[in-house]
Specification:
Number of domains: 1
Structural class: mainly beta
Shape: globular
CATH superfamily: Immunoglobulins
Distance between the termini: 33 Å
Mean pLDDT: 79
Strand order of the largest sheet: 10-12-7-5-15
Order of helices and strands: EEEEHEEEEEHEEEEEEE
Strand content: 35-45%
CATH class: Mainly Beta
Low-confidence stretches: 1-11, 13-41
Radius of gyration: 18 Å
Length: 205
């Protein structure tokens, strides 16, 4: 469940590859909640049942994260590789920052989601947007996962003393960005990314 608050408005824009590339936008407003249906498992199963050699790498993170300004926190991501064919190869992935950007107020209410998408297409960035990639690092820096195996990747979230106050109300959606390394000409691979909810607060005096 995603809880929404009017203290700050975020526009989260991410590029997601599921058959085709699209743009996703979300915002927060007072006392509204939105139940997100759990369709991921059904979607993955449908993908694996199609013809051809197919793999799904599912990234799971089970808890929200709290961190204060000027501090770091390490949380764990579990990556599991499922395949529909014994011929499926191991998949090598490299974590690179996060997917999407955050657009805080006042910029979030200046533009519609369509206008933000157009800015991204034409300029490669969104006015007033902030990337969360600058605040994350991973260990190990690359993993290879055989079908049926799981591995754990540590995600460090490092919040500086001058972290933008506009981002400190409500939970921030850090979505790890894992990139395939190498060629898999006979194998279709889907990466099912997790979202790590991070609450940043002021350090106690």
């Amino acid at each position: 469940m995603i809880t929404k608050t009017n203290s700050i408005v975020f526009a989260l824009v991410a590029i997601v590859a599921v058959g085709s590339i699209g743009l996703i936008s979300s915002s927060m407003s007072e006392n509204q909640t939105e139940d997100i249906p759990e369709v991921t498992l059904d979607f993955n199963q449908d993908f694996l049942e199609r013809d051809g050699i197919r793999s799904v790498v599912t990234i799971v993170h089970s808890e929200s994260v709290d961190v204060t300004r000027g501090n770091s926190v390490i949380t764990s991501l579990t990556l599991t590789h499922e395949a529909n064919d014994a011929k499926a190869k191991s998949v090598t992935l490299e974590p690179r920052g996060t997917i999407g950007v955050i657009t805080p107020e006042p910029y979030a209410s200046m533009y519609t989601s369509e206008e933000r998408s157009q800015q991204l297409r034409e300029n490669g960035e969104i006015t007033g947007s902030i990337s969360l990639s600058d605040y994350v690092s991973y260990s190990p820096s690359q993993v290879t996962i055989a079908p049926g195996e799981s591995v754990v990747v540590s995600m460090m979230i490092d919040i500086p003393d001058d972290f933008d106050e506009r981002l400190m109300v409500g939970k921030l959606p850090f979505q790890p960005n894992f990139v395939k390394i190498g060629d898999y000409p006979e194998q279709q691979i889907r990466i099912d990314n997790a979202i790590v909810d991070v609450q940043v607060t002021e350090r106690s005096q």
